[in-house]
Structure formats: structure tokens, C-alpha cells
Amino acid sequence: MLRGEGIDVRAVVRPGTKKDLRMAAIQGLGCTVAYADVGDVGALERAFDGCAAVVHLVAIIRERVGATFDLVNRRGAAEVAAAARVSGVKRIVHLSALGAGPEAPRYLQSKWAGEEAIRHSGVPTVIVRPSFVIGPGGGAAAQFAAVVRLGPWYPLYLLGAPERPLAVLAVLTPIVPVLGSGKYRSMPLDVRDLLAVVGQALRRDDVLGEVYELGGPDALAYDRVLDEVMAALGVRRWKVHMPMSLARALVREFRYLPNPPITQDEFEALLVDNVCDNTKTVRAFGLNLRPFRDAVGYALQNAVTADGSGRS
Ligand SMILES: NC(=O)c1ccc[n+]([C@@H]2O[C@H](COP(=O)([O-])OP(=O)(O)OC[C@H]3O[C@@H](n4cnc5c(N)ncnc54)[C@H](OP(=O)(O)O)[C@@H]3O)[C@@H](O)[C@H]2O)c1
Question: Domain limits of the chain?
Fold first, then answer.
């Protein structure tokens, strides 16, 4: 979006990032590339040198050895803020997450702590708290599509089993397991609406110092999200609701898998309604929010594979 508007963009990627198709795509847009880990304040300072603004997009939703929520989401944000200050950056647009707060589930607590670091950086900031984002190129839309297509076989896909035979099995067992009631709500947000906010947040001085919560126009139960994804994909599956006790036990056992379908932290976050009042943000940015059906249709029609190599 920024390059489309003729704005110079320096994409900061991790050292060691492979020169793959994603990198080629970034460079193809005319972005320059700088290398920095959010744990390396010196590299961040070099990366930010000469930049008017920083859009901070780095976070993890799953912890790994050496990459905890605290290290990446809180301390990483603090290092970005410190480097931005030293480099003379004039503003930071920080992507937080809807539901971030000091008492929230762990991931959202760390996003809150990251916000705090940015807020107290001394650099003017705009903080945006999006609900989960629907767009091409992976993320939530691709994940929902795989859950619906593969149904009960989805965990095997995550463990590396080939997709095609699993998809055949899924046709023979046309169900989608749902953890608990499926009534927990969220407000999935079209990435194009989020981009409109980020674009304005980079330019307008009247939004500095503010926090903007933003979800899509509708609060949808998880069951409804699945129905819409099925409609977009043109597939029919029966939703099978697992009793909460079974769901909890299953999620606990998932911790032994190398790439679980859901972690304990994600499960806890899922069960809390992730909704907001959009009024302030819609007014401030003059938004006409796209409904989930449009968002998911756009995301799936323009889906790219994880390596950015084309339509999936
Ligand atoms: N997607 C959503 O639905 C959603 C919803 C609410 C809020 N948000 C927030 O929006 C922001 C962007 O989300 P996203 O979905 O685009 O996330 P994403 O796809 O997971 O991207 C995160 C990026 O951070 C990079 N990264 C991870 N650890 C790093 C480190 N130590 N140093 C430097 N870079 C590192 C990753 O690099 P590699 O590619 O090398 O791993 C990746 O490019 C995040 O702050 C997230 O919390 C997202």
C-alpha cells in the first residue's frame, strides 16, 4: 500500500532470512531491506537510520525456546522504541491486539506490556489494536480454510502429512470438530480496513497519542465464522461440538505435538469474547468496514502460498 503511494519503505527482516520468493516480492515492490532482530538494538538503530516513521509489526503468538512472549512482544517492543528514539524517528505506529490488557490471557498481557514500552518511549505513537486479521497470504483465513477442508484430519496436516489424501479422507468424514460451545465471539477484520488505518496513522498528527481498537463490523460466534468459511469454499461440513472438559483435556495433550492445532494460551484467548466498540476508530478514520463475507472471499480468492509463490 505504501509503495503504491510512492512512499519509500525499508523492510526490516531478521538476519538470516532466506533470499526466497517473499524477499523477492518485497524487493520487487521497490522496498529496500535492512536486517535486524528485535533483540538487537544496535541493528535496529542502523535499520531505522534516516526513517521518518516505524511501523512495528513484530510479535509471536506461540512461544519457542529462546523466543518467549516476554522477550519478543514486550522486550522487543522496548528495543524498537529505544532504537527509534536514538535514530530520530518521528513516530511509531504500533500494532497491538484487541483484548491486550494487564489481566488478559498471557499473549495479550505481553502485547499490553509491549504497548506500555512504546507509550513511554518518548517518541510520538499511534497504537492500533486489531481483532484477528483476514487477508491473503496466510494467517487466519488460510488457517480457517484448512480447518474446514480437512476437518478432523487437520492436526495430521500440521504434523506434516500430505494435504491431498487428508482432503479425500475429510470428504468421507464431513465434520469439523469445534472446541466447546462455538459461541465465543470475535470481530474478524479485513486487512484492507486495517491498512487504511495504518496509512492514515502515518500521516495525521491529530491521531498521535491515541489507542484505536478495531474489529470487523460484526461480532460473530466461532460457529458462524466456520459457516461463512464453508460458504466461501463451497464445502459442507457438520460442526461437532466437543464438551468443554474433553476440549480442555485434548488441548492439554496437544502440548506434546511439535506443531499443535491450538496451544493452551490460544485456547484461553479463544474462549474470551474478543470484541470491541468500533465507534471511535470508525469515526476517526472515516471507515466503511467490510463484512466478514467480503473479507474471507477476498482473502481466499487472492490466497498465496506460504512462500509467496502463487495461488494456493
Ligand atoms: N494477524 C492477526 O490476526 C493479528 C491480530 C491482532 C494483532 N496482530 C498483530 O499485528 C502484528 C503483525 O501480525 P502478523 O499476523 O503479520 O504476524 P506474523 O505474520 O507472525 O509476522 C510477525 C513477523 O515478526 C517477525 N519476527 C518474529 N520474531 C522476530 C524477531 N525476534 N526479530 C525480528 N522479527 C521477528 C517474523 O519474522 P519471520 O518471518 O522471520 O518469522 C514475522 O515477519 C503483530 O504485532 C500481531 O501481534 C495480528
Answer: 133-187+217-274+290-304+308-312
